[in-house]
Each structure stands twice: as structure tokens, then as C-alpha cells.
Amino acid sequence: MNKKFSAAVAAAFLVFGLAGCTEADQVRHNLSQEADNFNIQRKLTVFNIRTDTVLFQMEGTFALSTSSRDELEFTVQTGENEFKRHFISLPDEVAYVMEDVSGAGVDKYRYEINFLPDWGFKVTNRE
Description:
The chain is of the alpha+beta class and 127 residues long. The protein has one domain (37-125). The chain has helices at residues 2-18, 23-36, and strands at 42-48, 53-60, 62-66, 71-79, 82-89, 94-100, 111-115, 121-125. It is globular, with a radius of gyration of 21 Å. The model has no long low-confidence stretch (mean pLDDT 76).
């Protein structure tokens, strides 16, 4: 019985030791969950690293992931049960920056996409 108890305690320590989460890990997980639930205001900027040209910007509450085809996939919620998906290809000379820009009074159904902002072209969802 003593050996079984010792083995169980050792296994428990091993499981908790391997899964030992730091506070930063837990915060990162919680922020990712909140962002995927459309509760965090974000800003995405895609730019050409050779020319320093901003190619694409998006602001709003959206979920972001990367695919195996070198694409960014982001999902926006446009209404209570309405969603849209968008994809951006990421060739080698393109990089992106994601910022969490949380604030009070965020409209979770509004988002904005800017293609080549220097040219002044915008797509905005405002209801």
C-alpha cells in the first residue's frame, strides 16, 4: 500500500510539474480565449519587409490563426450569429504585427479593413 501511495504521489508531482504553468502562460491563454470570443479589440498590420510598405490593416474584434499554406485566417463577428472569414497570403517578403488594443465601450460587431492605406482605399462595416 505504501509503494502504491508513493507511486501515485510521484505521478501526481510529475503531471503537475510538466504542466507547470507560469502566470504569464495563464494570462496568454486567457487573452487568446478572450480574443477568439471576440472580446478584445485588436489591430493587425501586414507589411512588405523589403519595401517597408504597409499592405493591409485591420482593426476590430476578430480571431486570428495561421494555416499550413502560409496564410493568415481571421474571423470577424458581424452580428449576433453572423460571421465572416478572410484570408491573407504571406509570401516570404511579407510580415505582420498583431496588437491587442483593448478599450472600454468596444463595438464587437464593427471592424475595418484598409488595403494599401496610402492609396486611401477602405472597407468598413458600420451598422
